[in-house]
Write a structure and sequence with these properties.
The complex is a heterodimer of chains A (315) and B (316). With 315 residues, chain A is mostly helical. Chain A has 2 domains: 45 residues, no CATH class; 219 residues, MetI-like (MetI-like fold, Orthogonal Bundle), CATH 1.10.3720.10. The mean pLDDT of chain A is 81. Chain B is mainly α and 316 residues long. In chain B, 68% of the residues lie in helices and 0% in strands. Chain B is elongated, with a radius of gyration of 24 Å. Classes of the chains: A mainly alpha (315), B mainly alpha (316). Chains A and B meet through helix 1, helix 6, helix 7, helix 10 and helix 11 of A and helix 5, helix 6, helix 9, helix 10 and helix 11 of B.
Chain lengths: 315, 316
């Protein structure tokens, strides 16, 4: 077990280093000169040179890379060029919108997908199963930002139950905050729930065909008991991976959803960075998101090894 | 591992078998509908989408007025009266805020979406499949290791985020959207190809080809590739539908196809501020996206069932 975690940790570290290389390369090397990219075409050469100096662009590449990474490790994300404040402050404000939103959406998606997937598998090939599968096909095909617009039309414009956009902040009270995140969370959760329900169903169907389920039935358990006691636990393994992957999608998907609802989250920070050509913000915030995704994937992998000893030996 | 080569099924009438699957037929009809629409838009659209006609702006579809005029016998007042709007019979889908015909816009938008997704899938296949074949042919070697680890790296990135990053740095355009979406198709196809090819490399007919003196490149092209075609086709339809969703998302946030080229994602972005008084502008492009993606996914599901007879036997 220890060897497994050690091996995975090394590959985690290598992935993170490679990811940071890619992001650094895309942002600092590819556009030619980041300083003139940030200032636009009309900037005077003196102004560009001043910015180069301020950003430390005259230092060699490897030195810039190292100082960026060392800064990140110390929690120093650099200073935003447009806002003139430390990026860590910007992130600290916004993480309390994005993180609750992702958690809310993930919870909703699990709460919807779990019973629906189990129901479809338990009633395989029935009318219930066919209509659930049809509904999930539709759920996958719906772009979440379009669904968000329709939710706004119905629940914010026609019936004024929710606000059409913006976030009141958690200072206004817990439920006010939850209410502000409800429509965004539902629109993020819909496609995720559809995918999860399909995985839940097919995984459960696979385990229901296993010998140990037949044995359980032979010793006198009803179909329902065999499903809940034996099949379901084993069916959870692929479902867990998908939940881990969905976290990745929710982090990235929120970039668009936060824009639909004008939410002041991490996603909209990346977007602001892009439109303001503030490459320092973009670089550090994207790295933070990629870091979160890679670490979550690692944790899911390790969690597996605890649940399923076969995976430990396999590697 | 699913057995890839099935000799117990006749191979020539797979299409006829597929036509028995309702999901394949529905998917095929939807996909054909939008493909034909896209092709037709090159030669003819009811109105020119490049011409603005402000006098006819924000006309709603006649169907909306028809609903508004419905009388429900038992109801005291007319339920849908608030739906009443200005419509014109020649604009079947209404017009947008510049007076452009929505039906024509959706036809041209289909062309954009399909072109972007198609080329992006082409990049995925063109680069990913050779990489996967090479990795499988040299399994365990440094090449294999290198290819698979770079795959893992790309897959570890949140796809949409990096697409946004690429279009932001290189500039927002259709080309960069295609590249950004295409890059994420590469590991998908490389992984699929490698996995399927590995199991084929252990089979007798490959051994026979090796005994006959064929090299790994020739074997990969002549013997491995034809046998994984089915898998690639199914995966392509899925990636195609994901590409259409990704293009819509990128164009919606303004990082994809640029105006004046109509695109479904851009139409939705325009519609957002007008949703309270012109909901048709948001509904129709959205429905177009949903039906196209749904069609491709249903077609992919149907094809998978046909290509994989094991699945067909056990699940039906």
């Amino acid at each position: 077990m220890l060897v497994f975690i050690l091996k995975r940790s090394i590959s985690l570290l290598l992935t993170l280093i490679a990811a940071s290389f890619v992001i650094f390369f895309v942002i600092e090397v590819v556009p030619g000169d980041p300083a003139s990219f940030m200032m636009g075409f009309e900037a005077s050469p003196e102004a560009v040179e001043a910015l180069r100096e301020q950003l430390g662009l005259n230092a060699p590449l490897w030195e810039r890379y190292l100082s960026w990474i060392v800064g990140l490790l110390q929690g120093d994300f650099g200073t935003s060029y447009t806002y003139k404040v430390p990026i860590s402050d910007l992130i600290a404000d916004r993480i309390w919108v994005s993180l609750p939103l992702a958690a809310f959406a993930l919870t909703l998606s699990i709460l919807i997908a779990f019973p629906v997937g189990v129901l479809a598998a338990a009633k395989r090939n029935s009318a219930t199963d066919v209509s659930i599968m049809g509904a999930t096909q539709l759920g996958i095909a719906i772009p979440n930002f379009w669904f968000a617009m329709i939710l706004v039309l119905i629940f914010a414009i026609q019936n004024r139950w929710f606000s059409a956009g913006g976030f009141p902040g958690w200072d206004e009270g817990f439920w006010v905050g939850v209410k502000g995140l409800t429509l965004p969370a539902i629109s993020l959760a819909l496609p995720q729930a559809s995918i999860l329900a399909r995985v839940m169903r097919s995984s459960l169907l696979d385990t229901l065909d296993e010998d140990y389920v037949r044995t359980a039935r032979a010793k006198g358990l009803s179909r329902r008991q065999a499903l809940w006691r034996h099949a379901l636990r084993n069916a959870m393994i692929p479902v867990l991976t998908i939940i881990g992957l969905q976290f990745s999608f929710l982090m990235a998907g929120s970039v668009i959803i936060e824009r639909v609802f004008f939410l002041p989250g991490i996603g909209s920070l990346v977007f602001l960075g892009i439109t303001q050509r503030d490459l320092i913000v973009v670089k550090s915030v994207v790295m933070l998101l990629v870091f979160a995704v890679i670490v979550v994937t690692f944790l899911v992998d390790v969690a597996y090894a605890f649940v399923d000893p076969r995976l430990r030996k396999g590697r | 591992m699913v057995d890839l080569v099935t000799n117990d099924e006749p191979r020539d009438n797979l299409f006829l078998v597929a036509l028995k699957s309702p999901s394949f037929v529905i998917g095929l009809v939807l996909t054909l509908m939008f493909s034909i629409g896209a092709v037709v838009s090159f030669f003819w659209t009811p109105f020119d989408v490049a011409v603005l006609d402000i006098l006819n702006r924000l006309k709603c579809p006649p169907a909306q007025n028809w609903v508004a005029s419905l009388q429900i016998p038992s109801a005291e007042n007319n339920w849908f009266a608030s739906w009443a709007c200005q419509s014109a019979p020649e604009y079947l889908f209404g017009t947008d805020h510049f007076g452009r015909d929505m039906f024509s816009m959706i036809l041209v938008g289909a062309r954009t979406s399909i072109a972007v997704a198609f080329i992006a899938v082409g990049i995925g296949i063109g680069v990913g499949v050779p990489l996967g074949l090479a990795a499988a042919a040299k399994t365990g070697s440094i090449i294999d290791e290198l290819i698979m680890r770079s795959n893992d790296l790309v897959l570890a990135f949140p796809a949409l985020l990096i697409a946004i990053l690429i279009t932001a740095v290189y500039g927002a355009s259709a080309t960069n959207a295609i590249i950004a979406i295409g890059i994420f198709n590469i590991p998908v196809f490389a992984r699929l190809t490698r996995g399927a090819a590995l199991s084929l490399w252990t089979r007798e007919f490959v051994l026979a080809a090796r005994v006959a003196g064929k090299g790994p490149v020739l074997i990969s092209i002549e013997h491995i590739l034809p046998n994984i075609m089915n898998l690639l086709i199914v995966q392509s339809t899925i990636q195609f539908s994901l590409g259409i969703l990704a293009e819509a998302g990128l164009s919606y946030v303004g990082l994809g196809v640029q105006p004046p080229i109509p695109s479904w994602g851009r139409m939705l972005a325009d519609a957002q501020t007008m949703i309270s008084f012109a909901p048709h502008m948001a509904l129709l492009p959205g429905i177009a996206i949903i039906l196209t993606v749904l069609g491709l996914n249903l077609m992919g599901d149907g094809l998978r069932d046909v290509f994989d007879p094991k699945l067909r036997r056990s699940r039906t």
